[in-house]
Amino acid sequence: MFDDFKIMGKYQRFIGKTKDGERGNAGMNKILTTIVLLCFSNIFMTFAWYGHLKHLNAKPWILAALVSWGIALFEYLLQVPANRIGHQVLNLGQLKILQEVITLSVFVPFAVFYMKENFRMNYLYAGICLLAAVFFIFHK
After folding, report:
1. Structure pTM?
2. Which of 29, 35, 97, 126 is 20 to 30 Å apart from 87, CA to CA?
3. Taking a C-beta distance cutoff of 8 angstroms, is the pair 16, 140 a contact?
C-alpha cells in the first residue's frame, strides 16, 4: 500500500519500509501504536511536571515531588513500551522528534485550558520549528 507512495516523486514515505525491512501495515501499526502510547504518556508527564504548580503550590516541595513521581510512574509504564515498539520501525532521531511534537501538542492545550495561561504566538512558532524538524529527521 505504501510502497508506491512518493513525496514529490523522489522521497519514499517514512512508513514505506521500516528499519527491519517490514513493509506497509505492519510498520504503520507500530507507528500508530507508538503515537497513541506516547500521547497518553505525555498527558501523565505533563501533569507530573506541571500539575503540582496548580494543586500543590502551597504544600512542601517534597510532597509535590512524591506526587509527581507517582504520576510519572504511569508515564513510564506507557513511554517505555512506546519507545520499544517505535524503535522497531523508527530510528532514534525520528523517535525523539516524534516525542517532541507530541509533547508540544499535549503541553499547549494543558497550559491554555488547564493552567489558564494565555495562548502565545511563541507556541505556534515552536510548532512550526518542530514541523521543520520533522521534515529534516524523516527526510531520506
Report:
1. 0.78
2. 126
3. no
What DSSP assignment string belongs to 39-66?
HHHHHHHHIIIIIHHHHSTTS-HHHHHH
Taking the C-alpha atoms of residue 71 and residue 47, their distance in angstroms, rounded to an integer, is 7
CA atoms within 13 A on the CB side of 75: 16
Q: Are 76 and 139 in contact (CB under 8 A)?
A: no
Residue 98 has a pLDDT of 95
Task: Please give the backbone phi and psi of residue 87, each rounded to the nearest 5 degrees, phi first.
Answer: -70, -10
Q: What rounded mean pLDDT belongs to the chain?
A: 86
Amino acid found at 19? K
List of the chain residues with pLDDT < 70: 1-24
Specify if 1 maps to a domain: no
C-alpha cell at 125: 512558532
60 falls within a domain: yes
**Residue 37 counted as domain residue:** yes
End-to-end CA distance of the chain: 19
